[in-house]
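Now read these lines:
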Amino acid sequence: MSASVAGAAWLAEPALQTLLSVLSQGGETARVAGGAVRNTLLGEPVGDVDIATTNLPDETVRRAEAAGFRAVPTGIEHGTVTVVADGRGYEVTTLRADIETDGRRARVVFGRDWKADAERRDFTVNALYADADGTVHDLVGGLVDIASRTLRFIGDPEARIREDYLRILRFFRFFAWYGSGRPDAQGLKACARLKDGLARLSAERVWAELRKLLSAPDPGRAALWMRQAGVLTLVLPESEKWGIDALPGLIAAEKALGWAPDAMTRIAAIVPPDTQRMKALGERLKMSKAETSRLVDWASADAARPERSDAALARELYRRGVDGARDRLRLALASTREKAGNDAEAMKEAAGLGRQLKYLEGWSKPRFPLSGRDLEQVGVPAGPKMGEMLKALEALWVEGGFAVDRDALLQRAAEMAKD
């Protein structure tokens, strides 16, 4: 089976063509490898463009710099050099073969055997190479799997997984992005049998894969098969009793209402709204502070009520912030839309939730018009009492719909100072 990526815009970039040319002189070879080739053949957007070459890393650096490019030894001990050409970075990696693996990392030797390099990769669709003219080289049967959108391990699935247990999560992540139908049966069984090896991975690697999986256009089928294989419960035990039934409705709402796929909203859909458990989840997976805060804000946000007034919503947004409330509203609206059908009451509830979301998107936080300096002018000394008065006045202002003006607040402060 033959294929070509000759018409791809990224392949025609002059800097890339120059780099491939200088790396393919004097008996050496360089080809574009992996994701750029895969995505082009699948009709998907292309991000990074990586290159595989027979040149040893030091020679890659020499040739790149001689061509006027900047070479950065980002992973030179593993054969990888980042070449910056016309403002774009290309990862150039010397052909390799594994000589030792421990389930997390591999010790490699450099080589010149393209088939050996292909066979050390994870999935057939990720082991395709393209020459500068676009001719695709397939050494492991990847083109057949591209045609059917089948995600299949190269060789023995268990052997590939034992080399790096992260490949279990990558199996489901790539299936979410590029697979169709059912996952490859042998691969799925291998993931289920070896899932306990996930405990050997760092939390950062696990969360990075989960986040990428949950960012796919539709991760629902992948999440279903992860649960069937017992993998989801291992990496996200919070989902075990809560389930993943909310995902299809959320994804349908995203498509219908133009919401961008968002990993954090999707993880919120499959875990319970429990503040302490969300704090623990963020800590366990080494999420960023912003990610953990968002889950905690969502868990602590008021339950979405279709009949809630704009004024009540504004008070919550001021006190708790926008992100948690938005996630609550979106999940509630997605669930209600899924139930609606011809149910007039559910349609009415969906309309109410939709109205609140629209209000939220146009809301901006008002600025409390008083400061400590203002209270000093009416005789309130700096200290704990001033802080308590500011909080009380702010609460009064919020409950009044942010309508109480500065003069009225100062008058109230003067009254409080006399008490």
User: Anything to note?
Assistant: Strands lie at 30-33, 50-53, 70-75, 80-85, 88-94, 96-101, 106-110, 128-130, 136-138. The chain has a mean pLDDT of 93. The radius of gyration is 28 Å.
